[in-house]
Amino acid sequence: MSQKHFGVPAAVGKPRHGAPGQVIDPAVLRESWTLDVLAWAQYGVMAKKIDVHGSHAALPPVILPDDGKGRTVALDLLAALHALRSRPRAFSQMAGRYAPLVIGAQDRQRPLVLELWQLDGELEDLEKWQKLAEQLATYLRAEVRVRTHVEARQLLREAQARGLPEELQARNPIAWALAEVGK
Q: Which of 44, 82, 76 is CA-nearest to residue 63?
């Protein structure tokens, strides 16, 4: 049975915790961990916690309440929106995914930045996604950016060259692997 979350539409909301013994898809784990490293690589700030359910999570997997410049930043996967695209009222469900972030940013009087990452290179028609990002930005009154797998690779290489903090490596196998390969 699905757990209800205040402020998240039922069609978008997913259970926050799986049933005991439930195994999370390793590809989904890698996506969440990769977003964690990308957040640190761009902003030099670690999220307090990441949601390893990736695109299946009720909210974006990585949220930085403060990026060091007074903004709230969320890193999400384009795949999460792609899954909602074919549903009736798709745009409102997509916007509903970010409603708690919008409210939280407004309450803290911080601008909201939403980064939608294409990590796998499989999503077609990036121009369509750019257009959706513009619509979401207007609707959410936030800065919304579509980021590609090419940008992700570049940021990961730069992070590896700089060296990753031990805290990040301790909780993130992707960060650990990047650090080990870089030695």
A: 76
